[in-house]
């Protein structure tokens, strides 16, 4: 679950409303940054190989030179990947509290691996052991919610090193301690399970249902209009135009409810069409568009927050916009 993804946006909002801080350990940070670096490098190399193979089959005038979002000159620079990795790490640090591994916990983790005790079984697992011991340390100073109630540390991992043998999701017996017995440290195998622990069970909803809402369409239209930075003559016409909003492509939305609040998130690509004037049909039925106006497309993620007896709050995070098939931009 990466920053800026719809699932993360929903999970982050739920955690914040429940009073929790999202955290990872410094060991996990190093691991995910390394994985991102490897994945980005591999994806770019595969893309460039595929592009070369495609260009060998095309005449010079039709050959592919980069993509609208990644210009050719950017891909060729040696520091393109390093800049992308730095941005990724900055996003992680902006969205998570990074818990440092105490030196005594690192030493204890190595001993657990050497002794083959969980989660350092079979002469491996010092990394997992250090992560677990850091979570145990964090549970000693639990946060409190707005009402002053003590909040547990919810440890989210599907790694079998932390669970009892077999298909059980229960904590491994050797890891049970005072914090786990008192409910101050809880193991959950998935983010969905963690949301249940927050009191916000999750379900899927249709993206089309969100698109058809009048309040969502108003926010989407206003967002697209502001981002397009259109001249005043267009804005004047758009104020009286006939407007239609349609979901071109999108995934299932995610929804969860708890404490009288419903949170919904959905991502996709929407078309927004401003019609200034309908044109008469040509006798031959062929030709240009059937209207004068301004077509737009916008891609992004929406988060809708609905609280009892209050107007819904809708936040839209754009990723790409196109006006009349031109002037595409990435955010």
UniProtKB/TrEMBL annotation:
Residues 5-162 form the DUF4935 domain. InterPro entries: DUF4935. It holds the Pfam family PIN_12. This is DUF4935 domain-containing protein. It comes from Streptomyces antimycoticus.
